[in-house]
Design goal:
With 250 residues, this protein is an alpha/beta fold. The chain has a single domain (49-247), classed as Ethanolamine ammonia-lyase light chain (EutC) (Rossmann fold), CATH 3.40.50.11240. 44% of the residues lie in helices and 17% in strands. The protein has ten helices and eight strands. The strands form two sheets. It has a six-stranded mixed β-sheet, with helices on both faces. The chain has a two-stranded antiparallel sheet with strand order 1-2. The radius of gyration is 20 Å and the shape is globular.
Length: 250
């Protein structure tokens, strides 16, 4: 590789954690890059299979909100079942349904905040409490349901929770499918009038919330914008677009 090519490759690698401009030995990948790939692959697999520290995260969320957190479970009884049966991860178990029924109030809530492990417990453990902490000051005057922490949950479990609580909106903070350079990426899904049968086209998603991606402050700003627009326009999904000018972003 020429000096010019090496300089170009170094600059490119400095701009992204992705595997670009990798060197080679003959026709093979260099040992260092191969070992780094194997390590990243192992980290991604570990993130998918890891069990959420629900008690520890609940304590963090309670400190962030100064309120009790409701712990819930999906119908997936263990991690293996969760990975093999996505449908069970979208539905609440009987005890969780009963707990939410006791929390419902006349008139319902403006918003239900839901935190679920999803496909990366690491993502919610590292990022969820920080996002909630930054988001709450943007929700002054909103009637908020107790924060719900769900084990073995998928995105659509927020529909069941929101409907059970009579919430107009839900925000689901959930661990995203790990990538080879991002095992701890958090996603946020905003849904107007949550109910069974909502599709992904009826949600707004903010992705890549993590230290190396979208910060907790930036994520909270975007979520707050979407919530305000959704409440005013009474919709979410493909009809609701993010306005960078209103967000004050470049």
């Amino acid at each position: 590789m020429s000096e010019l090519a090496r300089g170009w490759a170094a600059r490119l690698r400095a701009m992204t954690p992705a595997r670009v401009a990798l060197g080679q030995t003959g026709v093979s990948q260099r040992t260092r890059e191969q070992l780094e790939f194997q390590q990243a692959h192992a980290m991604a697999r570990d993130a998918v299979h890891a069990r959420l520290d629900a008690a520890g995260l609940a304590a963090e969320l309670e400190a962030a909100t100064n309120a009790a957190v409701v712990r819930l479970r999906s119908q997936a009884t263990d991690r293996a079942t969760y990975l093999q049966r996505p449908d069970l991860g979208r539905a609440l178990d009987a005890a969780s349904k009963a707990a939410l029924a006791e929390l419902r109030v006349d008139g319902g809530f403006d918003l239900a905040l839901v935190v679920a492990d999803g496909l990366s417990a690491l993502a919610v453990e590292r990022n969820a409490a920080a996002v909630v902490r930054e988001l709450l000051p943007r929700l002054e005057g909103w009637r908020l349901a107790p924060v719900c922490l769900v084990e073995q949950g998928r995105v659509a479990i927020g529909d069941a929770i929101g409907a059970a609580l009579g919430a107009k909106l839900t925000v689901v903070l959930i661990g995203e499918r790990p990538g080879l350079s991002s095992p701890d990426s958090l996603g946020a899904y905003v849904t107007w009038e949550p109910r069974a049968g909502r599709t992904d086209a009826e949600r707004n998603c903010i992705s890549n919330i993590r230290a190396e991606g979208l910060s907790a402050v930036a994520a909270a700003t975007q979520i707050g914008f979407l919530l305000a627009e959704a409440r005013q326009r009474r919709l979410t999904g493909v009809a609701l677009k993010m306005d960078a000018n209103l967000l004050g972003e470049d």
